[in-house]
Automatic annotation (TrEMBL):
Molecular function GO labels: nuclease activity
GO biological process: nucleotide-excision repair
GO CC annotation, single: excinuclease repair complex
Family matches, as Gene3D superfamilies: GIY-YIG endonuclease
Domain of life: Bacteria
Organism: Desulfosporosinus lacus DSM 15449
Protein name as catalogued: GIY-YIG catalytic domain-containing protein
Record-annotated GIY-YIG domain positions: 1-80
Annotated Pfam families: GIY-YIG
Alphabetized InterPro entries for the sequence: GIY-YIG_endonuc (IPR000305), GIY-YIG_endonuc_sf (IPR035901), GIY-YIG_UvrC_Cho (IPR047296), UvrABC_protein_C (IPR050066)
UniProt keywords, alphabetically: Cytoplasm, DNA damage, DNA excision, DNA repair, Excision nuclease
Amino acid sequence: MKPGVYMMIDSLGNIIYVGKAKNLKNRVSQYFNHQKDRTPKVVEMIHRIHTLKYIVTDTELDAFIEECRLIKEIKPRYNKQMKTDKKYCYIKIMAERYPKVTK
């Protein structure tokens, strides 16, 4: 499957987590495989999932940009990064022969 962004939604319709993936199917299925190394917070989040939605993107960069935008806009409960202005995700593309993307 292609790269993209996935959203975990609770029973009230609130988006509680936004993530990105190189391969949406593989990444989302990891949440539902029984893993012993999950933190209590991740286990709690998984129990709250009622619906999953996803957006397929053409590239990983597109997924990264969309994830940043959604987290900034929605501020999902379980996304701890990018919640304060100091930690928002920014993309800087320089006018070089081979542009690079940085956080």
